[in-house]
Amino acid sequence: MTRAGGRAAEGGRGPGGQGSWELDEAPVPAVTAAAWQQGEAKLFPAVMTRPDIYQRAVSLVRFTLDRLRELGPSTGPLLAAGAQGGDLVAQVVEERGLSSFELDLDLIAGAALAMRHREVLAEQAAARRVRALHDAGARGVTWVVLEEAGYSPGDPFVPYHRLEAEVATGRALLVTASSDEEFRASTHEVQPVHVDLASGQVHEARTTDVAATVHADATAREEHAAAIRDQLSAS
Question: Which of 6, 77, 104, 149 has the lowest tally of Cβ within 10 angstroms?
Answer without folding.
Answer: 149
